[in-house]
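Hi F.,

I've been meaning to write this up properly since the lab meeting, where we talked about keeping a consistent format for the predictions we share between groups. The idea is simple: the sequence comes first, exactly as it goes in, then the structure tokens exactly as they come out, then a line or two of notes. No screenshots and no reformatting. I'm using this chain as the first example so we have something concrete to point to.
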Amino acid sequence: MAADTAPSYDFGLLCVGLSADGVAHVEINRPEALNAFSSQVWQELGACFGRFKSDGRVRCVVLSAAGRMFTAGLDLKEAATGPLGAAPDPAVDVARRGYYHRLAILEFQDAISAIETCDKPVIAVVHGACLGIGIDVISACDIRVAAEDAFFVVKEVDIGMAADIGTLQRLPKVVGNDSWVRDVCYTARRVPAKEALLVGLVSRVLPDKAEALAAAQATAASIAAKSPVAVVSTKHLLNYSRDHSVREGLEYTALWNTLAHNSHDMAAAVMASLQKKRAHFPNL
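Output, unedited:
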């Protein structure tokens, strides 16, 4: 994508940077509210990852948060004045209220799903509390690393509802342990970083946020050095195959690669390997 047409990443509650090697860093920046998700935060997050999908400069993304924790979850103060907290209008019947409430939930879901569908790998860096919607967010990421002080809570049952933005759909596939998922979703108990590592919710636990962020940046840089065609193809096919049978996944991969195999990156990667040199690939 030409520099003069590259998307802008100016957001009010997100700090977004892009390194020369194609690693984007998105920092949720609402520390005074413990990074609670207001409507502005989730709308900006969805818009940001939607733009990443079509920005060829972006090869990998690191997602972190400012302040003392990753997120306190949903902004309950804002929610209390919105659809969740508003008294029903007796003049409007349940069917009509429900129709628009469903649309609001779907909009929220789509914003978080943008992390998964952006095609560029996303590495979440979790420190301190990761509550409620924080689990929805990190479940949509590709890789999760944590600081030792991180802990995780599927909090929704404590506010009288079932999680509805992706946790119940993605978390069972992330950890592959149905009993454990039901345990934490029914009880809203606190899961420390060591337990999260044990069940596979995170792939690494580092001593503190700085080291966790450095580890994520190093992994992102390694991914960004690969062929962008190969990387986005791999993410896309992993997501497709997760939700389909082996046979469907194989057939779809064959179709996908009839296009992807036409990239010049394959020849460049093979030649670099033979010459024991590092290959350099153009942006997507």
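Notes:
Residues 1-5 have pLDDT under 50 and may be disordered.
The chain has two domains: 3-224, 228-274.

If this format works for you, I'll send the rest the same way.

G.
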